[in-house]
Amino acid sequence: MRLSKLLMMTMAVMLLCSACLTAQIDKFGKVDTLYAETYQIDDQNWAVNISLVNDEEILALSLPFKFSAGKNRVVVDSTIFKGGVVENFRVKYARVDTATQCVTIGLINDIGVSIPPIPPGRGRIATIFISSLDEKSISALKVDTTTTPPGNDLQLVKPPTDQVVPAFVVKQGEKPKESIKKN
Q1: Domains of the chain by range and CATH?
Q2: How far is residue 4's CA from residue 43's CA, in Å, rounded to a whole number?
Q3: 5 three-state secondary structure
Q4: Residue 110: exposed, middle, or buried by beta-carbon count in 10 A (0-12, 13-18, 19+)?
Q5: Which of 47, 50, 37 is nearest to 74 (CA)?
Q6: Residues paired with residue 95 on neighbouring β-strands, in sequence order
Q7: DSSP 13-57
Q8: Are 142 and 67 a contacting pair, CB within 8 Å?
Q9: In 98-160, which ranges are E strands?
């Protein structure tokens, strides 16, 4: 009986420790931070500015997000990269999954052509536009990271191919002073 309790306790501690080890991995300096700043455009439309604070060059990013607005279903209408630190990256995609209310953003700076990586510093990655599928007012929008098929997790890639898992912070923003229009 004591042995089984000891084994159960050991397994529980191992599970808790493994979860802590997979979050915020950055063995190359300070922990990088990815910010999601939500703001309301009107009753049925919101936007999320995704920005990054990093202390090393970044070659690629995998950014899977899940959105929710209570009982109101939402959809990602569009994602823009123009004006951000990844504007010149060769590979930029945003794969939307309306059924799960997720979007996976994938970014790679260079495929055979010399495109500089994201330099250390701070900058906007993308702006994601979200609207109500039910044509109801969205009073609050929640955003979080997730894992999307086939195994896309929140991560950054530092040269040559080292993984960095950033911290993730959600901020409630105000309407931007300059309006950003959907493409």
Answers
A1: 26-172 (2.60.40.680)
A2: 55
A3: helix
A4: middle
A5: 47
A6: 104
A7: HHHHHHHHHHSS--TTSSPPEEEEEEEEEETTEEEEEEEEEESS-
A8: yes
A9: 102-108, 121-132, 142-145, 155-158
Task: Report d(CA 75, CA 65) in Å as an integer.
Answer: 12
Say if strands 121-132 and 45-54 run parallel, antiparallel, or are unpaired. Answer: antiparallel
Report the C-alpha dihedral over residues 165, 166, 170, 171, rounded to 10 degrees: -170
Give the length of the chain: 183
Question: Residue 150: is the preceding peptide bond cis (ω within 30°)?
Answer: yes
Per-residue confidence of the chain (183 residues) as pLDDT tens digits? Answer: 555 544 344 444 443 433 334 455 656 678 899 999 999 999 999 999 999 999 999 999 999 999 999 889 999 999 999 999 999 999 999 999 999 999 999 999 987 778 889 999 999 999 999 999 988 999 999 999 999 999 899 999 998 889 999 999 999 876 555 545 554
Q: How far apart are CA 9 and CA 169, in angstroms?
A: 32
